Amino acid sequence: MRVYAPTTAVATAALLLATLTGAPPAAADGGPDSGPRVKVSHGDPYADCTIGAVSPDSVVYPGTEVEPYLSVDPRDTKRVVTVFQQDRWSDGGARGLSAAWTTDGRTFHRSTLPFSLCAPGGADFERATDPWVSTGPDGLVYASGEGVDFTKSTRTGLLAVTSRDGGRTWRNLTTTHVDEQPFFNDKPSITADPTRRGTAYQVWNRLDNDPPGPSGIDGPGYISVTRNGGRTWSEARPFVDTSAVPNTQTIGHLIVVDPSTGTLYDFFDTITFADDLSTVLEAHYAMVTSTDAGETWSAPVTVVRDSAVPEVDPNAPTKLLRAASTLPSPAVDPKTGTLYMAYEGADFSGGAFDSVQLVRSTDGGRTWGAPELISPKGVPAFSPSVAVDERGTLALTYYDLRHLEPGDTTTLPTAYQLATLPHGNTEQRTERQISRIFDWLQAPYAGGYFLGDYQGLVADGEGVRAVLTETHSGAPRNRTDVYTVSLPTR
Fold first, then answer.
1. Residue 125 near residue 149, CB atoms below 8 Å
2. Is there a contact between 117 and 125 (Cβ–Cβ < 8 Å)?
3. Is Ribonucleoprotein given among the entry's keywords (predicted)?
4. Whole-structure pTM value
5. How far is CA 374 from the centre of its chain?
6. Contact yes or no for 268/212 (Cβ under 8 A)
7. From 3.30.1200.10, 2.170.120.40, 3.60.140.10, 2.120.10.10, which CATH number describes the 6-488 domain?
8. What is the distance of C-alpha 70 from the center of its chain?
9. Which residues pair with 129 in a beta bridge?
């Protein structure tokens, strides 16, 4: 979910929930220089579900698919699983989460994730949010999400399932952790360890809105681990502490693993609020390291200042957008061990708007270089994702607004871009458009026009595969769809 003053976040239930629908092999053309996009969302498995309304003001957007992520089987890159939200609610989350799977890279089939009451055999939660997926070295697929209740009191639960048949069916539904107010769990992700069969890590932030002492909030990072292929998960425990600085929370925890050494790196944003929780005093990205498969973790190392500014329509700043502000996207070069982190920041616009920025470390995260601009100068850009292919080519995807004309306040022309940097060399950067141009203002509204707090990008052999959300104009019952595209990086 997007970071708000934390007590407001709980009071307004401004979460993200979702499901995904599978799709036939409907292909669509992208922009100049793009490869063929394949639509993976088709139909609505939760169209008849009436569960989840919080108040008469709750608005559900039927037929919307947002906030996708994906995973590729390391043994066969044509075996792909995508996950995303289905039927977004205006005041938090979606009717449910779903998956779409393929064995040929183009023909996607739908399966539902059992993370809400709208799903067959689903967990006992009114809504679901924050879909994530990761595939282990043995082909075992792990999917995670969050179940949420709002009608009686805010209840949040971390959920996980596994698939042994590439996303066709799901098993081992596990509630790894559950809380009620004043606790609020947020932004879980899941990472299958590429060096340890049957091992995966689920991480998130656990916000305490009534901690003991003078602090108004406390938001440490939490972790749960499976070492038997998702049959059981360890008891959730804190692994990033925030109690030393009052009114501090983390968000956006995401683990990447160096396949050469097995070292784990967890990246996140740390945010400190004023005493009344109305303003941010300080924010920075940080990381912690584990060399023993998540048993113990280092002290946090600061990566870079979080310089993001509010995400808005540049021609109509009262129109709020929702993208990936506060959420890091990290990757590790599988050969050299170089660490990269992409994020939204305003360092290159004088604080006027967000661009896509990159930092890197060549010493295992002990020290970090200065921010580098990746998206075009002078153009607002959002939702970066980063991956490194097997040759060491760095790839980044992002939305940008280069097609927006001055004075246009009725539409927000948006396109998704792929930038590639051989061995991270910015001087050899190339870029191509991989989506059509679409109107962001057609997206469901949930604290801002919402395509998702993140999109997905993974290495795909000698290339990358992206998953992204696009909108449709004049289609109130089908405002968005999810597409995937696989592209070489040379």
1. yes
2. yes
3. no
4. 0.93
5. 19
6. no
7. 2.120.10.10
8. 10
9. 146
In the DSSP assignment, the letter for residue 217 is: -
* Pairwise CA distance, residues 106 & 436, whole Å: 18
Longest CA–CA separation in the chain, Å: 57
DSSP 444: P
- DSSP letter at 60 equals B
Closest CA to 253 of 214, 290, 282: 290
* CA 29 – CA 415 distance, rounded (Å): 13
Q: Are 273 and 208 in contact (CB under 8 A)?
A: no
Q: Give me the pLDDT at residue 7, please.
A: 37
Give 37-78 pLDDT, tens digit per residue.
Answer: 999 999 999 999 999 998 889 999 999 999 999 999 999 999
Look at residue 35 in the predicted model and tell me its pLDDT.
54
In angstroms, the CA 294 to CA 305 distance is 26
Report how far residue 239's alpha carbon sits from residue 204's, in angstroms, rounded to the nearest whole number.
Answer: 10
Q: What band does 462 get if pLDDT is binned at 50, 70 and 90?
A: confident
Residue 130 CA to residue 10 CA, distance in Å, equals 16
Mean pLDDT estimate for the chain: 92
Q: For tokens 């995904």, what's the residue?
A: 20
Query: Which amino acid is residue 374, in one-letter code?
Result: I
pLDDT value for 207: 97
Backbone angles phi, psi at 440, to 5 degrees: -60, -30
Question: Domains of the chain: which residue ranges?
Answer: 6-488
Core vs surface per residue 149-169: b (16+ CB within 10 A) or e:
bbeeebbbbbbbbbbbebbee
Query: Of 93, 125, 126, 131, which is closest to residue 111 (Cα–Cα)?
Result: 131
Cβ 88 vs Cβ 41: under 8 Å: no
> What is the residue-wise DSSP string for 91-107?
TS-EEEEEEEEESSSS-
167 backbone φψ class: left, alpha, beta (φ>0; ψ -120 to 50) = left
